[in-house]
TrEMBL record:
Domain Glycosyl hydrolase family 36 N-terminal: residue ranges: 30-261
Keywords associated with the record: Glycosidase, Hydrolase
UniProt KW Hydrolase keyword: yes
Catalytic reactions of this protein: Hydrolysis of terminal, non-reducing alpha-D-galactose residues in alpha-D-galactosides, including galactose oligosaccharides, galactomannans and galactolipids
Protein's UniProt name: Alpha-galactosidase
A molecular-function term among this protein's GO annotations: alpha-galactosidase activity
PROSITE patterns documented for this protein: ALPHA_GALACTOSIDASE
Biological source species: Streptomyces carpinensis
Domain spans labelled Glycosyl hydrolase family 36 C-terminal: 627-703
Species classification: Bacteria, Bacillati, Actinomycetota, Actinomycetes, Kitasatosporales
The keyword Transit peptide is assigned to this record: no
Stored SUPFAM superfamilies: (Trans)glycosidases
Similarity section: Belongs to the glycosyl hydrolase.
Amino acid sequence: MSAISFDPTSGVWLLSTVRTSYAMRIDHTGAPCHLAWGPRLPLAAVGRLVPPHAGDVSSFEGRSPAGEELPVDGGARYGAPSLRVRFADGTRAFEWAHLDHRISEPAPGTTELALEFGDRHYPLAVTLHYRVHDDTDVIERWTVLRNTGREPIAVLRADSAAWTLPPRDDYRISHVTGQWSAEGLLHREPVPHGETVLTSRRGITSHHANPWLMLDAGDATEDRGEVWSAALAWSGGWHLTVQRTSDGRTAFTGGAGHDGTALPLGPGEEYTTPRFAALYTDRGFGGASRSWHAYVLAHVLPHPDETRPVLFNSWEATGFDVDETSQKELAAQAAKLGVELYVVDDGWFGGRRDDTAGLGDWAPAAERFPQGLGPLVEEVHRLGMRFGLWVEPEMVNPDSDLYRAHPEWVLHFPHRTRTELRNQLVLNFARDDVAEWAYTWLTRLVADNAIDFLKWDMNRAFSEAGWPAQEDGQDLLWTRYVLNLYGVIDRLRADHPGLRIETCSGGGGRVDLGILSRTDQAWPSDNTDAADRVTIQHGFGQIYPARVMAAWVTDVPNQLTGRSVPMRYRFHVAMAGVLAVGGDLAHWTQEELTQGAEMVARYKEVRHIVQHGTQHRLRGPVDDGPTAVQYSTQDRREVFVLVWQRAPRHGMPRPALRLAGLDPAARYRDAATGAVHHASVLTGYGITPELPAGDWSSTSLHLIRVDDEAVDDSGRSAS
């Protein structure tokens, strides 16, 4: 059976992924109707399924809020609509008219379905798109709207997709919340009756929520149980609405935008929503996470096979006090530590001496870099490292030459205060001239200085989100801003194929599948406290793989929390992702420099497992006991385990960690001790790693599969 098939007798379309099925058909009103999403089904069986709203209902109920592929505003529908439009004569209701469908194979291993509709009277075409790949259970969906008439249409809401779940006794939602420096805090709670809305109205993905969710029937665990999950590929304002209906159904819809905005769609114009990807698994929350990780590596990241280098960032070492001499000295120390990518953070340009001035004037400060950045870049390259630079292209300080020349370039409303956050305003990237300005200086900066890496920051949310010079600008900018941002990055990468980019927005304020499709790694949080990072990284890893998670080792007491934890613990926490160092190396003792170099070398031995392997959360940060995460190579020949514990309690037993995903017939050698373990024991009974005594203890375990002949009678490796 092909990945997408159609039965003309029953009118059913069936999407088949590696382990799951998804099915729909057109109902008697012409609306696309959901049938099934779950375990694999044959097409003949799907044809016998009954649509969830097919029965008679009370006149007070109307059509069920769950069960349509894209619920519209129109008819006897009272749930959260996925599509709301206002036609030129004021009519809002939309009525489906099915026109055609197309099944295509745009690339090897990829199949797409397009369901084409129009309104029964008005000139609006709506196409629902579905895409499946032969190596994942993730289904990608998006919607295309086209104004085929001669008058404008206002799009009040245009979600990418709606998803309906099968009936279960109860449902639970998993999602993350937080704030700046406390992102990614995982919550798992019952789905209340009515509507639950997750959203960002800030113009960015936001620190406070992330556009993904997981739903289970209340009984899923890390290793087993049904989970339905979805993630939106959009880096601006967004909303996800979960509905638990009075008739016992659960569904959700989501897309770009938020309440209070409308997208103008002029004659002949077309709008394509961002991708809203989703999956079903019966392998629990861990199974859902591993499916997402594999999908991001296979179908999202531009360079998934690359191994990310060990990075040093200058921010916590120097702050704004950046000059050529001190940076060369710091780079020399970083190279001795084993760093492979040296990044100069804020303070290198214009009149930037603190956060009150200089943003927008992107030329090296003459008194700090009298010959420009060239000599520093050359020295970093001579030391065997790549060179990176911090930029914040979307921002401007009022105290800058750029703002004095172009005050009209920022988001603003007439006769309203221009609110400053962090002493800066937001440049209106929806304007083509602003986007072109940003692209021009960025591509010149990279080319003229042989820059290998950009840390692209964005340190505040929108306010006064207006565009007075543009008709309907206050509605248009929310979408066009993000599309122009994507366009600048895409053009920049096309100009410089070797350039790599980290997405950052005051930490984790812009992490999503949309920005990750054009960047190489993400900064999860400005909070580098290792103890806090265990929880932040736990939430981050629910959807996003270790391959994209930048993690720094910084000095103690921590600049943000004032907490002091051992260097070993800080390194072990940062080794769970893309390792980086951010401390002031000039003040490290010789003992710290030696230990740091040893830990960097240790990470390089195992980073292929961490960055490209399969991740299992062996024990989450749920109590005073240890937290542990495991990584395994795809061929299961190598395993790497990290364990952290805050404060062990005397007399409390240490839990055995049962490893996962090993070859049950194999034996594994501990790379540090030479001890050999049977996989059946490691997975069935577990292992209790030895943790150093005291608070903030941590350890790692590297296991390598050995052949029978490589083990002597004592159970130790013969080598």
